[in-house]
């Protein structure tokens, strides 16, 4: 009888330990830094010297721009990494910064609620910031057998596509994710795989992990705004803006 009860107590301890461990893992927060490698869509050899210098400077700015993802299994925040500001930016520097953003077309910031399958993002259009809340994008990920090592982690390949309302096009994406980090997160809107996305191949850039830090002590706060648009409202606004641009152009 004594042996029977000791086995029950041992089993109870194991269950409690497993519950505590799983809860602890679910609360693990990671800080992930992503870097950008721009892809030029056309050669610049035949361009003027001034154009070459501007393009090279824009590429340089893109390469020196890092993005940070703070994430756990409940939520995440993704944004451009804060950089030291020195003095006032001149007109050319503003051109370089704006041009460098075109390689990724990332949102200004994006908050993800994994438990409710929703995101809140800030998008800059025509020098105005708009805050939008919507459900996850549908990527219809297809995981294949390709495997490689990224930052010492075993990564698997997946391909997917999503609709972009701004360009009004279906965008194809090729990503690598690592199941060893149990987060369904990634840069910007890219998520929904059984592991952290560590590399993305887009048409204009390759975004890849440079550092991963575990057990970060920080609160992940949602984005707040007095005027949050729904996805439908946001897409209707884009249609109006496009119509106005075409009208002004003609």
Automatic annotation (TrEMBL):
<dbReference type="Pfam" id="PF09697">
    <property type="entry name" value="Porph_ging"/>
</dbReference>
<dbReference type="InterPro" id="IPR005901">
    <property type="entry name" value="GLPGLI"/>
</dbReference>
<feature type="signal peptide">
    <location>
        <begin position="1"/>
        <end position="26"/>
    </location>
</feature>
<keyword id="KW-0732">Signal</keyword>
<protein>
    <submittedName>
        <fullName>GLPGLI family protein</fullName>
    </submittedName>
</protein>
